[in-house]
Amino acid sequence: MKLYVIGIGPGGADQITPRARAAIQDSDMIAGYTVYIDLVRPFIGEKEILQTPMKQEIDRCTRARDAALTGKTVAMICSGDAGVYGMAGLMHEVCADYPEIEIEVIPGITAACGGAAVLGAPLMHDFAVISLSDLLTPWETIAKRLDLAAQADFCICLYNPSSKKRADYLQKACDIMLKSKSPDTPCGTVRNIGRDGEEGTVYTLEQLRDTKVDMFTTVFIGNSQTRVINGKLVTPRGYENK
Amino acid sequence: MKLYVIGIGPGGADQITPRARAAIQDSDMIAGYTVYIDLVRPFIGEKEILQTPMKQEIDRCTRARDAALTGKTVAMICSGDAGVYGMAGLMHEVCADYPEIEIEVIPGITAACGGAAVLGAPLMHDFAVISLSDLLTPWETIAKRLDLAAQADFCICLYNPSSKKRADYLQKACDIMLKSKSPDTPCGTVRNIGRDGEEGTVYTLEQLRDTKVDMFTTVFIGNSQTRVINGKLVTPRGYENK
Lengths: 242, 242
Known about the structure:
- The structure is a homodimer of 242-residue chains.
- Chain A is an alpha/beta fold and 242 residues long.
- Helices cover 30% and strands 25% of the residues of chain A.
- Chain A has a five-stranded parallel sheet, with helices on both faces.
């Protein structure tokens, strides 16, 4: 009994690894949020599809597990990397009582890496990845992580920086980081990473604070060494200082 | 004038994206550390190769830049992701005075994602990536980041956890994290990610402290919610608590 949890990268077929593609082809059933299934539809062929809407993650994973228990090889599709805010963890949780199911997680390019490449090289030194979504995490935990990550002079990558209900969360996050980071800290946003309309923009932290972003955007905040070189965001690793 | 900085993922050809492969094929000259060039040799063909040994990063990037200035399309090969402790940043630095060179960074699967997939799903929640190498970063900075990341209850992924000169650095790092994290915190190591001899091992933080690792190993430390499920390291995102 086999269950793949597959990261398909940012979106385009040219960023899906051969390993991910082979696992999809090896599967009898393809499961996942409709938008992600559409991204791999060109090479699904006639396979059985288990589509579930957004925000029904437990149901989605349970149904994939139950299909695997009937002997089908099932592929759960995630955007980006399956192990970074994807379905890899929950799939292990819902299969806890079914050790006979072999779960294979297949990594993909996560938005931190895909977005950083668009902006230049903002994550060249130690960095923290933080989701601003408080659907599953209390805001106090998020705020504490932002505060300590800024104090540690990490480069910071923010996932889920905004939604309709959380229109001011990026501003609140910037205010926390501004306690330890300079208002001139170079920052950037990338919208639609790896898809049509991909767009990277460079800001200062002070400007970012007053910028509206949407849920298709990933946000990058530099460390104290980050600078802008020819329009790109670059965090030196330190070779030039040696 | 075009210069690619390409992340080829953990090692195997099946984790190199089509985009990375196409950029290699589009290039006139392939540059990089010998070991990484060997990994892509099957699809380099008869292209010109610029090999440089380890630890001559500035020289490597400068020579690639100078080749690009003659009109050649050059591909700088990095293992993992080009933008996470790779060459993307330094390449932008050495090209600072040559804005006529178009630098395109092509992301790859970094060890944090590739190794997490081997262990299960340890990075499902907010995480920090920290290199223990003090070649370019003062140990005090590394220690401060470890301390604050542990206080923030981040999952933590450690790159470069050891070398001949730094045999006790992982132990020192664990001692710092043990100030804020429980000795029972589930942890893991992955050796030879995506290559022959790939091996993941699960420990507690207390056990990890007394474990010797080598430079081919990536280390994962859970947060306060991480647990072991059927031998896999899993950090819940929180769906089951909703």
